[in-house]
Design a protein that fits this description.
There is one protein chain. The chain has helices at about 1-20, 45-100, 105-165, 175-220. It is about 80% helix and about 0% strand. It is built from four helices and no strands. Helix 1 crosses helix 3 (about 105-165), helix 2 packs antiparallel against helix 3 and helix 3 (about 105-165) packs antiparallel against helix 4 (about 175-220). It is an all-alpha fold. It has a domain at about 60-220: Helix Hairpins (Orthogonal Bundle).
Length: about 230
């Protein structure tokens, strides 16, 4: 009894997660119905619950990763704001240099502006990458949540099966097909999210390539440092 009660909070949390998934709902099995099931027959239920707890742990990690990705996107935007400011300052210096009529100063200011614009491209690309990473992390989080919902449906099925085997009359009007349908519906939702994740990951890979390309261009555009001495 204590063991079942201890699992109540875990099952309840998973039920909340599962309830957020717009999938076919199977029949409801109440926790207290399992009180009369002999411990020896509870192994399939315990195994399903263990899998569900693992899925919940994975969802917690995915949620934390999403928060990290959003924080990194905020940092990237701050860096882009700094790059914008440097471009504006370089443009102002070019205008000031033109007013002086000094050729050497104008040449230097144009060189600084060119560098600032190249750095701005890098910053823009980094924001695009950060946004792509947020989208990927968000889909991973949704997928992890969907997997919890699937595991919850599998727990319900395992509970139904042990109750039926134990001759519990409260489940006699429930049909095995209803539990299978709930699991199939939630697995179908998983499949959709897996396909979406593959697309998001491809977009993130393209964004990373662009960011690396822009960084390479910036490095190549920097003037060579004369040797010391």
């Amino acid at each position: 009894m204590k063991r079942l009660a201890a699992l109540g909070a875990t099952i309840g949390s998973a039920a909340l997660l599962a309830g957020c998934m717009h999938a076919h709902e199977g029949p409801t099995i109440k926790e207290e119905w399992l009180a009369r099931v002999p411990p020896a027959r509870m192994a399939p239920v315990e195994e399903s619950r263990s899998s569900m707890r693992s899925a919940m742990d994975e969802h917690n990690r995915a949620s934390a990763a999403l928060t990290d990705a959003k924080n990194q996107a905020d940092v990237a935007r701050a860096e882009r704001d700094t790059a914008d400011s440097r471009v504006a300052a370089a443009e102002a210096e070019v205008r000031a240099a033109k007013d002086t009529g000094e050729g050497s100063r104008l040449k230097r200011s144009h060189a600084v502006l060119d560098q600032a614009k190249e750095a701005k491209k890098v910053a823009d690309a980094k924001v695009d990458l950060a946004d792509a990473n947020v989208k990927t992390a968000s889909t991973k989080n949704d997928l992890a949540k969907a997997r919890v919902a699937t595991k919850q449906a599998e727990v319900n099925q395992a509970e139904y099966q042990v109750l039926a085997q134990n001759g519990d009359t409260r489940v006699k009007n429930m049909r095995p097909a209803e539990f299978e349908a709930a699991i199939s519906s939630r697995k179908a939702n998983e499949s959709k999210l897996e396909a979406q994740l593959a697309n998001d990951q491809q977009a993130a890979a393209s964004a990373r390539k662009k960011w690396n390309d822009e960084r390479a261009k910036l490095q190549a555009s920097k003037p060579a440092t004369p040797p010391a001495g």
